[in-house]
Design brief:
The protein is 20% helix and 26% strand. The protein has 261 residues and is α/β, with parallel strands linked by helices. The protein folds into 2 domains: 140 residues, UDP N-Acetylglucosamine Acyltransferase, domain 1 (3 Solenoid); 53 residues, Udp N-acetylglucosamine O-acyltransferase, C-terminal domain (Udp N-acetylglucosamine O-acyltransferase, Domain 2), CATH 1.20.1180. The strands form 3 sheets. A 10-stranded mixed beta sheet has the order 3-6-9-12-15-18-21-24-26-27. It has a 9-stranded parallel beta sheet with strand order 1-4-7-10-13-16-19-22-25, with no helix packed on it. Strands 2-5-8-11-14-17-20-23 form an 8-stranded parallel beta sheet, with no helix packed on it. Helix 3 runs antiparallel to helix 4.
């Protein structure tokens, strides 16, 4: 008997779980019944993969993470609900991610995300693609985060808050209002801090696109108009396509209202 065989005796892997090809599983791992794991997945020691997990190809889950655990909810424990994790996502040590509740049925983590140590993603969250959640940030239930957004360490995102795409949200701050796309946000509580110029350049936005985004936010935040009147002015002055449309759509569908300057 080899040393690896001895380590395997410390695992609990349900025979009902569906596990793909070339999956590497460390010691002391628990994988429950209602789990589907894709190919080339790495699961390190002491990880819990609870019922409802749907893990795509090439995902890496590091030491001690708790995946698809029951929602931290007083009455709804997410029975028969799921957590989806997209391809190539990395989940670092001791992160906790809850599955969905009866409200939406699932929590979603996109592809190519990087979720650092001690991050908590609560039930029914929807995280886009290429998102970075830095160490120990906490996302309340039903939070939404757009693609290519970075949330700094120790940040606290209130339940039901929406954060747009290509946002840089500062570490140690909290969001109680929605954060529109393409911006830098921070302070206490979070406020608009300008356009995320560096992030947009790194992701291939042209100078003309960045200039237009800056113009839109100057109308929203620097003209003295309230948000409703600023939106009317933007609709009158600009063709509603591409980045302009994304900003306006985000504002008009916001239920909590957007952050202020």
């Amino acid at each position: 008997m080899s040393f690896s065989d001895i380590l395997n005796f410390t695992n609990y892997i349900s025979h009902k779980a569906v596990i793909g090809k070339n999956v590497k599983i460390g010691p002391n791992v628990i994988i429950k019944d209602d789990v589907i794991i894709g190919d080339n997945v790495q699961i390190d020691a002491n990880v819990l993969v609870d019922d409802g997990a749907r893990i795509s190809d090439n995902v890496k889950i590091h030491l001690g993470a708790a995946i698809s655990v029951p929602p931290q909810h007083t009455t709804d424990y997410g029975e028969n609900k799921i957590l989806e994790i997209g391809e190539n996502t990395v989940i670092r040590e001791y992160a906790t991610i809850s599955r969905g509740t009866n409200v939406t049925g699932k929590t979603t983590i996109g592809a190519n995300c990087y979720i650092m140590t001690y991050v908590h993603v609560a039930h029914d969250c929807r995280i886009g693609n290429n998102v970075v959640l830095a160490s120990a940030c906490n996302l309340g239930g039903h939070t939404e985060v757009g693609d290519y957004t970075f949330i700094g360490g120790l940040a606290a995102i209130h339940q039901f808050v929406k954060i747009g795409s290509y946002v840089m949200f500062g570490g140690g701050f909290k969001a109680v209002k929605d954060v529109p796309p393409y911006v830098v946000a921070g302070n206490q509580p979070a406020k608009y801090g300008g356009v995320n110029v560096i992030g947009l350049r790194r992701n291939g936005f042209t100078k003309e696109q960045i200039t237009k985004i800056g113009d839109i936010y100057r109308i929203l935040y620097n003209t003295g108009l309230n948000i409703s009147d600023a939106v009317k002015k933007i609709k009158n002055d600009y063709e509603l396509k591409d980045e302009v449309k994304n900003i306006i759509d985000f504002i008009e569908t916001s239920e909590r209202g957007i952050i202020r300057k």
